[in-house]
Design a protein that fits this description.
The longest helix is centred in the C-terminal third of the chain and has 25 residues, at 272-296. Helix 6 crosses helix 9 (272-296). With 297 residues, the chain is of the alpha/beta class. 39% of the residues lie in helices and 22% in strands. The chain is built from nine helices and eleven strands. The relative contact order is 0.14. The chain is elongated. Strands 3, 4, 5, 6, 7, 8, 9, 10 and 11 form a nine-stranded mixed beta sheet that branches. Strands 1-2 form a two-stranded antiparallel ribbon. The protein has three domains: 3-79, Winged helix-like DNA-binding domain superfamily/Winged helix DNA-binding domain (Arc Repressor Mutant, subunit A); 92-151 and 270-289, D-Maltodextrin-Binding Protein, domain 2 (3-Layer(aba) Sandwich), CATH 3.40.190.10; 160-259, D-Maltodextrin-Binding Protein, domain 2 (3-Layer(aba) Sandwich). It has helices at residues 3-15, 18-25, 29-43, 59-79, 100-105, 107-117, 169-175, 220-228, 272-296; strands spanning 48-51, 54-57, 92-98, 121-127, 141-144, 153-168, 189-191, 215-216, 233-237, 247-249, 256-266. Strand 1 and strand 2 (54-57) form a beta hairpin.
């Protein structure tokens, strides 16, 4: 198989169409289409089902995908020196996908420290209120709140983290302190937009029987700032509380949640540069969560 054709195949599979793939490869769509047709002829199989909605991998295409990704990683490993300069520092570009709470309150400190030690490394933080799609190469690695179930991704537990009920002092002075978790059902709550909760682990309020969220956002940072503005009660990451000293915990012994961050990368051949980076990221994240949660007590 021709690597150039495999490269086009991977781009089309990730973009789910010719136009997006062609833009990324700096080809015109017609050329990309001819490359796919040539690859299909050489394999004697149709790799994509084409429709007005885009290109979807056929069964043959799904079988080829992991082999093409393995070839891509092997070629990258053979073309570089492990992603390090002469002093052993990391170089190149690495993109991290993460939920916005992690991206806002943890990754800046962690990545700043990694970047200071590796000045020729470009670190990109992709903050999204949804799961980052590693299969489409939106990022090189992702931090998630649930472990993936697909065998094409490899996950390791990064760290537990805690969340608490919190409100501004002004709101509590005006409205009083709830006397039990049951009181949350009738309280003015801040939380996620219900139909935009992209992971069951983020449905914090359901555990307390809360069915109405008068003030909602898909972004953790917006929820935190609504609470700071005196809009109501919110479930807040403990690691974010040091950034909002005007908030206080409410019912700290009775409303206390624990969740887990997972570090997710592609399965398949190991990438030495990415392995080195994930070690730095893992150690930095664990230390930063512990530091911020200690400041919040």
């Amino acid at each position: 198989m021709n690597w150039d054709d495999l490269r086009v195949f991977l781009a089309v599979a990730r973009a789910e169409g010719l136009s997006g793939a062609a833009r990324g490869l700096r080809l015109d769509p017609a050329t990309a289409g001819r490359r796919i047709a040539r690859l299909e002829r050489s394999l004697g199989a149709v790799l994509f089902a084409k429709s007005p909605q885009g290109y979807t991998l056929t069964e043959a295409g799904q079988r080829l995908l992991p082999r093409a990704e393995a070839a891509e990683l092997a070629l990258a490993a053979g073309q570089d020196d492990g992603g390090a300069d002469g002093a052993g520092r990391l170089t190149g570009t690495i993109r991290i996908g993460a939920p916005d709470g992690c991206a806002n309150y943890l990754l800046p400190q962690v990545c700043a420290a990694i970047g200071a030690d590796n000045p020729d490394l470009d670190i990109q933080i992709l903050a999204l209120p949804r799961v980052v799609n590693l299969s489409r190469r939106e990022a090189d690695l992702a931090i998630t709140v649930s472990a993936p179930v697909t065998q094409r991704l490899r996950a390791e537990k990064l760290s537990d983290y805690r969340l608490s009920l919190a409100a501004s002092r002004g709101w509590l002075a005006a409205n009083g302190v709830p006397d039990s978790p049951d009181a949350l059902r009738g309280a003015r709550m801040i939380g996620y937009i219900p139909d935009m909760i992209f992971d069951a682990e983020l449905d914090y309020l359901a555990a307390f029987g809360v069915t109405r969220v008068p003030l909602a956002s898909n972004a953790v940072s917006v929820q935190l700032n609504l609470a700071r503005a005196g809009a109501g009660l919110a479930i807040v990451h403990d690691f974010a509380l040091p950034f909002a000293p005007d908030l206080v915990r409410v019912l700290p012994d009775r409303v206390r949640l624990t969740r887990t961050f997972w570090l997710v990368i592609h399965a398949g051949p190991r990438d030495a540069r990415l392995d080195r980076f994930t070690t730095l990221l893992r150690d930095g994240m664990r230390a930063e969560i512990a530091r911020q949660e200690a400041l919040a007590t």
